[in-house]
Amino acid sequence: MNEGTQLWLIRHGETEWSLSGQHTSRTDIPLTEHGRRRAEELRDYLEGTSFNAVFVSPMQRARETCAIAGFGDQAVIDDGLKEWDYGIYEGKTTAQIRAEVPGWSVWKDPIIDGETADQVGVRADGVIARSLAASPGGGKVALFAHAHILRILAARWLTLAARQGSLFALGTGSVSVLGWERENRVIESWNRSFE
């Protein structure tokens, strides 16, 4: 059951689009200067932490955060950690989308030409399985990725529906830890920020 395994969820630093609130999935943009500073703060925070495995999204904002934080050489790219595919909503803010579709929410409305929450949940389940397999005797696994995929991953860790990732806010450059209390999967810490 891998009850000693912890999953460390590390959201990438700020980008121009995370700052503006634009939905960013497949658009491959770099960190801002503030985002790079946040990754340096992550490096300081994580210094001395040993991970059995480090998985990272293939997107440059996650890879850049991982490298600055000091784990680039250890990281394995995992496509399962890509952000939710927002389809036609890529690059738009929620306010822009709601001007066309009143009351729209990524968590409850169809994503045209993108993924459903359940499809992202299946990817998250795969990441969880690979993380547990990489740490069979317990230990820490780092996952450098994006807000929505990590929120959904937390929901799936707790055996909640993927859509219940809506319950977990997650800031840029944050660290969260999923673990165990006896045989129960729990959130040990959430959204540790450096601001």
TrEMBL record:
It comes from the Bacteria. SUPFAM superfamilies: Phosphoglycerate mutase-like (SSF53254). One of its GO terms (biological process) is regulation of phosphorelay signal transduction system. Transmembrane segments: none annotated. Substrate binds at residue 61. It holds the Pfam family His_Phos_1. GO terms for molecular function: protein histidine phosphatase activity. SMART domains: PGAM. This is Putative phosphoglycerate mutase. It comes from Edaphobacter modestus.
